[in-house]
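Title: [Solved] Intradiol ring-cleavage dioxygenases domain-containing protein 3D structure

Original question kept below for reference.
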Amino acid sequence: MTVDTRRRRTLALLGASLLLPSTPALPADRVPTPRMTEGPFYPRAFPQDIDGDLTRVMGRSAVAQGTVLDVTGRIVDRTGKPMARAKLEVWQCDNLGLYHHVGDMQPAGDPDFQGYGAVSTDEEGRYAFRTIKPVPYSGRSPHIHFLVRDGSRTALVSQMFIEGGAGNEQDFLFRNLGKKAELVTMRLENAGTGLRGTFEIVV
Ligand SMILES: [Fe+2]
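Solution (posted by the thread starter after getting help):
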């Protein structure tokens, strides 16, 4: 190999290396979960029992009325990075369509339903909570309210809907979302004696 050929090869290799990206490509952007307001039924006063199992109330032996539903999923940011140690708060009405912990706004409902609960995500952004399959109430299709806290910051407030939920198409919030409604809709599957669903949250 002549000096000239070697030089040309070196230059060609240098040229090729310059074409390589210097930083890894950013993951595709995720579509953020649509935001909704807290609404009037966020607790005014928190119950003593605020764990991630809403079907049991501390000190009571019975299980909440309704169909048990286990919800699991992940909380990620728009680049897909997990939100570790975020707090997920959930609240919903009981099987009679009544919210709890909202003072005199509602008559007493199912005493064995917790009404509100909070869980933390793990290092991979995963969360899990147990509740009942939500039921419709006046003007609203079945939904679970949720709120994501990142430290003291409220990162997102929204609602989870059920695929094929009774009255979804008439529900003003669901309808207003148009195509984005699929981002807040979860499919439920049979799981033993209850149901399970997965729901990814993008903040
Ligand atoms: Fe609601």
